[in-house]
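Write out structure tokens for Methyltransferase type 11 domain-containing protein.
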Amino acid sequence: MQCFMKFCRLVCLALSTPFYLLQFFGLRGMYKRLFPFLAYNITFSYNDKMHELKRELFRNLARFTNADGTLRLLEIGCGSGANFKFYPNGCTVICTDPNPHMEPYLRMSMDVNKHLSYEEILVLSGEDLREVQDESVDVVVCTLVLCSVNNVENVLQEARRVLRN
């Protein structure tokens, strides 16, 4: 068992070495610029494969519409806007993502999904949504996000804080 643990540690060290080298040489910022490009291009095939599941997942969003007929949605970690086409017509979306380099790809998705209105794009992490007012949104969406945040509990607390009662 101890031999297996040493082997696993060696594999992890070998796999993480490139990231340590990028950070050491100050090239880690390159990842933040490359990831949005990859995410945007992967979105198309991902949505094709997940189309029916996503349609089902977002099918009931319209039932959270306010008495005045509006639906205000906050998407935490919107990335390149992969979920936009599944949101109901007329929905107002507030986009958040911690990577500022995601915005050009996000704007391309906004141009394609004209059935929505977009309130703002905020460069924020899910753990700290201080720019979003308390009880100001009807729905919070965070798909493929909670696996990459530093503190899931804080993200959920922030989501609770911004949701209307």
